[in-house]
From TrEMBL:
Primary gene name: pgi
Example GO biological process: gluconeogenesis
Pathway: Carbohydrate biosynthesis; gluconeogenesis; Carbohydrate degradation; glycolysis; D-glyceraldehyde 3-phosphate and glycerone phosphate from D-glucose: step 2/4
Active site (record annotation): 353, 384, 504
Free-text function comment from the UniProt entry: Catalyzes the reversible isomerization of glucose-6-phosphate to fructose-6-phosphate.
InterPro entries given in the database record: G6P_Isomerase, G6P_Isomerase_C, Phosphoglucose_isomerase_CS, SIS_dom_sf, SIS_PGI_1, SIS_PGI_2
Domain of life: Bacteria
Enzyme class of the recorded protein, top EC level: isomerase
Family: Belongs to the GPI family.
The keyword Repeat belongs to this UniProt entry's keyword annotation: no
Compartment list: Cytoplasm
GO molecular function, one term: monosaccharide binding
Gene3D superfamilies tied to this protein: 1.10.1390.10, Glucose-6-phosphate isomerase like protein, domain 1
Protein name per the record: Glucose-6-phosphate isomerase
Length: 541
């Protein structure tokens, strides 16, 4: 059996640094190197990345880069970009980077020019988008489309909703998003809509997901009830995005109104495919093109930049350092932009569905931490909720601060006040407040320990000029490649999700037990049986 990365001397070297690292404080690291705050920075496209407030020395960074070389990160990147079947458990290429190749590029994978296929679909999406936005495409009663309702879940929801919310300043058609199978979601998003001016975009890679098909069926009933029951109305109000044309047709959507993608696009990586159709409808095809161009520039950086300056690689290695070697369990993502209020939720699927794995590519169990818990809220709301625990609690929580110099809506000095919080927080987290400093303010001795801020809490600051479609694409690609870097060091498959599949199968098996006319015989486990009995009683069954 081949040697695992965790058996290597490079891994041991990083481990050695971790064992002696607890005595190092960011205050000393900054005091001993007055240029640290300029030195440990990097630029990728429009993103200025300051990683100086991380718990690393130059030696640690060098050891992490050596570990990345040992894990063959560069070769793995090339394997992904060229379409090798690196998703070994599903025997698939992983080619979300092909979705943002510029027009005219060529990439032949498994005998097929995938770049050509990508642009063919983008052109169809663009033509459809133009028709809807111009009013040429009308509903069954001749009304133009006012609201787009995206029905999908997981990657078929989180990417589109996050990007729509992030780019709302550029949106000229309202979009709503139904994901949960809780009927409340469908009710809330449709009850005040006019079916005559509503377009449903049903998004499902497999077109077999219980939540999406159930919501789509109910949406169709709602539409037909509102428009007098004529089935032909469906063709004017329903389009599909999927890899499975047969199931789309079986559902009753004309495949003329279907936008395809491919099995080499993972759900959580699918926003830049036809899955982003609702976003394109909202912002137009040109701005959607800017989003894709933003992704692409970071893709190129990741593929071609030496590891020492390779921003996604460096940030991924820092995450491995904290999670695997220093024992952090979670990672906060704190965007100082209200428009990015769904960014952490989006990243939760991207990072946790990708790297929440317990065996390596060869099936051997890992004996180290993988896949940290990602979470976060936009600043400054988070400051008044959970920052206390980061500042003075006992846990190691690395945090990413994402901010913009120019606001999308300028009201004079309000943005400056907002950003003063952004800059203040990373300083307070890094350097804290010593007992001497607190006492010097005249604080009574017994209160001093309560006011001490230990500091030494690591943060990375990502600063861009303005949140635009292009910058959003850059940010998403950055986190995709951070996730890839971590998965490579951990030797796991970041592109399957078998754990989620089991839950889907079990829900389908349990559904008949809830609705059967007579109480089912004991069939699951004693806890679930009792809960179902109570549920049935409360439903009058
Ligand atoms: O949540 C599990 C998952 O398989 C995700 O990977 C995927 O994004 C989601 O379900 C939805 O799947 P589909 O697009 O096939 O409906």
């Amino acid at each position: 059996m081949s040697e695992h990365v965790s058996d290597s001397a490079e891994w041991q070297a990083v481990q050695g640094h971790a064992e002696k690292f607890s005595s190092v404080h960011l205050r000393e690291l900054f005091d001993s190197d007055p240029r640290r705050g300029e030195r440990l920075t990097a630029q990728v496209a429009d993103l200025y990345v300051d990683y100086s407030k991380n718990l690393v020395t130059d030696e640690v960074l060098a050891a992490l880069i050596a570990l990345a070389e040992k894990a063959k990160l560069r070769e793995r990147i090339e394997a992904m970009f060229t379409g090798e079947h690196i998703n070994v458990t599903e025997d698939r290429a992983v080619l979300h980077t092909a979705l943002r190749l510029p027009r005219g590029a060529e990439l032949v994978v498994d005998g097929q020019d995938v770049a050509h296929d990508v642009h063919e679909v983008l052109d169809r999406m663009g033509a459809f988008t133009d028709r809807v936005r111009s009013g040429e495409w009308v509903g069954a009663t001749g009304e133009r489309i006012k609201t787009v309702v995206n029905i999908g879940i997981g990657g078929s929801d989180l990417g589109p909703v996050m990007a729509y919310e992030a780019l709302k300043a550029d949106a000229s058609i309202e979009c709503r998003f139904i994901s949960n199978i809780d009927p409340t979601d469908l009710y809330q998003k449709t009850h005040d809509l006019d079916p005559a001016s509503t377009l449903f975009v049903i998004v499902s890679k497999t077109f077999g997901t219980q939540e999406t098909l159930t919501n789509a069926t109910e949406a169709r009933n709602w539409l037909l009830a509102g428009l007098g029951g004529d089935q032909s109305a469906v063709a004017k109000h329903f389009v599909a995005v999927s890899t499975n044309a047969q199931r789309v047709a079986d559902f009753g959507i004309d495949t003329e109104n279907m936008f395809g993608f491919w099995d080499w696009v993972g759900g959580r990586y699918s926003l830049p495919s036809a899955v982003g159709l609702s976003v394109m409808l909202a912002i137009g095809k040109e701005k959607f093109g800017e989003l894709l161009a933003g992704y692409h520039v970071v893709d190129e950086h990741f593929r071609t930049t030496p590891l020492e300056q390779n921003v996604p690689a460096l940030l991924g290695l820092l995450n491995v350092w904290y999670d695997t070697f220093l024992g952090a369990q979670s990672h906060a993502v704190l965007p100082y932009s209200q428009y990015l209020h769904r960014f952490a939720a989006y990243l939760q699927q991207l990072t946790m569905e990708s790297n929440g794995k317990h065996v390596r590519l060869d099936g051997a169990a890992v004996d180290y931490q993988t896949g940290e818990v990602f979470w976060g809220e936009p600043g400054t709301n988070g400051q008044h909720a959970f920052y206390q625990l980061i500042h003075q609690g006992t846990k190691l929580i690395p945090a990413d601060f994402i901010g913009f110099s120019v606001p999308n809506h300028d009201t004079g000095e309000m943005h400056d006040l907002f950003m003063s919080n952004f800059f203040a927080q990373t300083g307070a987290l890094a350097f804290g407040r010593t007992a001497e400093e607190v006492a010097a303010e005249g604080v009574p001795a017994q209160i001093v320990p309560h006011k001490v801020m230990p500091g030494n809490h690591p943060t990375t600051t990502i600063l861009a000029e303005k949140l635009t479609p292009g910058v959003l694409g850059q940010l998403i690609a950055l986190y995709e490649h951070i996730t890839f870097t971590q998965g490579t060091i951990w030797e796991i498959n970041s592109f399957d999700q078998w754990g989620v599949e089991l839950g889907k199968v079990m829900a389908n098996q349990l559904a008949p037990l809830l609705t059967a006319p007579s109480a089912p015989a004991s069939s699951v486990d004693s806890s679930t049986d009792a809960l179902i009995a109570r549920y049935r009683a409360q439903r009058g069954r």
